[in-house]
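Per your request, structure below.
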């Protein structure tokens, strides 16, 4: 339990989400979901079928790296976690506005807003990652 106290609750939530996606969801999606039903979104562009299946390992790597990086508070998580989350916000907006089944401009902005806030929180968490890196150097 003391390990979880090293980071704020919202970062623990992100870590658990990343772990779930890396260990449960993406493997299920990759190995069990039929290609005809597969969908992946990159930068707001939805890929389907084999294109989705082919890019899915990239999401797998991102989620696994996120879980490991948050758990160990790795220094490289700043700025990458914030930038990836910013990309998700932009992707949510782009998808909402430009996809046929997207909900539109206002809904896109509202959907992107929580991710923008999260990206800001991750950006401002830099001292946490640097402090942990310095502690690791001192313990070596």
């Amino acid at each position: 339990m003391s390990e979880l106290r090293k980071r704020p609750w919202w970062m623990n939530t992100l870590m658990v989400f990343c772990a779930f996606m890396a260990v449960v969801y993406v493997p299920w999606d990759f190995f069990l979901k039929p290609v005809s039903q597969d969908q992946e979104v990159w930068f707001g562009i939805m890929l389907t079928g084999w294109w989705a299946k082919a890019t899915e390992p990239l999401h797998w790597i991102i989620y696994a790296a996120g879980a490991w990086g948050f758990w160990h508070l790795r220094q490289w998580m700043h700025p990458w976690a914030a930038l990836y989350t910013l990309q998700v916000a932009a992707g949510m907006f782009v998808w909402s506005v430009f996809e046929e089944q997207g909900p539109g401009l206002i809904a896109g902005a509202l959907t992107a807003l929580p991710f923008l806030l999260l990206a800001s929180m991750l950006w401002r968490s830099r001292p946490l990652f640097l402090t942990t890196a310095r502690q690791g150097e001192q313990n070596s």
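The chain has five helices and two strands.

Regards,
D.
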